[in-house]
Amino acid sequence: MLLGKWGSKSRQKEAFEGHLANVFDAAFNYAKKLTRSNDDASDLLQTAAVRAYEAFDKFDGKNFKSWFFTIIHNQYINDYRKRKRSAYTTSLDDDSAKEPVSEEIDDPGTFLTSSMLQGEVENALAKLPDDRRNAIILCDIEGMSYEEIAEVTGVPIGTVRSRISRGRAELRNALTEFALEQGYIRNER
Amino acid sequence: MTDKEALIEELNALADGHLTKAKAEEIQKLVQANPQLTIHYASIVNIKLAVSQLPKEAQPELMIQVKSRLAEIDRVKKADQFVSRYAWGLCGIVLLTIVGAGAYTRLHGNSVGLSDVPGYSAGLVSPTLDNAPQGIASWLKRLIVGSPAQQSAPLRVLKEDVGSMGGVPAARVILGNPSDPYTLFIVNSSNPIQGVHPIDGTAQSHYWVGNVGPCNCLNWRQGGYQLVLVGKHSESDLESIANSIHVR
């Protein structure tokens, strides 16, 4: 690690830990949403933190959260996705992710914020393909801009927009189906 | 991408606040004018809200674990840096130790200690053509033992034995008479005999003294050989005998 930017090694460590503490809980929640397991999230976060610490001299000092989330994302791609979800990836051209037809039903959105449905939202989110789930987590949970999401995931902004749009459409489909089954909404077809 | 898909993306971008002001106004007008788009836009906003309200966890203990891992990394790096920075120094110390040990062994490795003399002495045998070391044999031939003034009778060579002491050629000569002998050890080595001290207390002393069992002994160097005279006599008697020993 270069010392020039931070003065001394102890100051560098102090700076890193300060940045890390600010984003740590968000990073854990992001890691958990990616891995869907507390243990895997802990491992992922620790590995990413070590990598980030070792590469801290490459951090430009601007947006630690984006920088660190990029490391988490890459680490997840390297270690976890291939191991656990290799069979479940879709491309942007996949027809299964087309927009749902919304004309036939009442507004499905009004019931979504009920706390009793949080588990279902979580389940539906967990079932999304990685790239879309990732984009939605970064956008809706972490509040990142499209530019930041593009930086973290290493794709163009247009792809981010597309992933978010299609991911929400899939969430909407899954939740609508659930709402119909449970009688929260009715199908007027 | 179809127009509809493009419009849906615009709706999502509007919900996320990622449209320019003009574009946002344009899409908002479309949404207000079309009930289906209104419903769709509302569903996007509600999904966004539902996802954003998912429970979040704090992990204070995990942060402590991470800090301890970082501290461990620093410790390992410090150790690595120390080793790599001082690698040449450490290698040099090891090398010097080896060289020093080698030099010490070379200088002192074949030294004969007084305490070892009785043991070595048992291994010395009468000289024959086969076992007599050349230097020692020639030395023995040239040995002259005079008659010290204080002795009533001249010293005679009673017996000669040859062999090695501590790995170096050596000989033993019994002098005097059988009831009161002196034993002279001749060691073909320039290394000092261990266990003796200077007779006059200075390092430049010609004679050095010590004990072999109950006997006194006198040690000196002569002609590149170490000589040790042993007997149940005083140190001055031994010195007197030593003064009478010469090599032709």
Describe this structure in words.
The complex is a heterodimer of chains A (189) and B (248). Chain A has seven helices and no strands. Chain A has helices at 9-35, 38-54, 64-84, 118-126, 130-141, 146-153, 157-182. In chain A, helix 1 (9-35) crosses helix 3, helix 2 packs across helix 3 (64-84) and helix 3 (64-84) packs across helix 6. The longest helix of chain A has 27 residues, at 9-35. The N and C termini of chain A lie far apart (64 Å). Chain B has 248 residues and is an alpha+beta fold. In chain B, strand 2 (157-165) and strand 3 form a beta hairpin. In chain B, helix 2 (21-33) crosses helix 3 (35-52) and helix 4 (60-85) crosses helix 5 (87-108). The mean pLDDT of chain B is 83. Chains A and B meet through helix 1, helix 2, helix 4, helix 5 and helix 7 of A and helix 1, helix 3 and helix 4 of B.
Major sheet of chain A: size, sense and barrel closure? Answer: none
Instruction: Give the fraction of residues assigned to helices of chain A.
Output: 55-70%
Number of spatially distinct domains of chain A: 2
Query: Looking at this structure, what is the CATH superfamily of the largest domain in chain A?
Result: Winged helix-like DNA-binding domain superfamily/Winged helix DNA-binding domain
Oligomerization state: heterodimer
Task: For the record, give the distance between the C-alpha atoms at the N and C termini of chain B, rounded to a whole number.
Answer: 119 Å
Secondary structure elements and their pairing?
The complex is a heterodimer of chains A (189) and B (248).
Chain A: H1 9-35, H2 38-54, H3 64-84, H4 118-126, H5 130-141, H6 146-153, H7 157-182
Chain B: H1 3-15, H2 21-33, H3 35-52, H4 60-85, H5 87-108, H6 117-122, H7 134-142, E1 143-145, E2 157-165, E3 168-177, E4 180-187, E5 197-198, E6 208-212, E7 215-222, E8 225-231, H8 235-243, E9 245-247
Helix pairs in contact in B: 2-3, 4-5
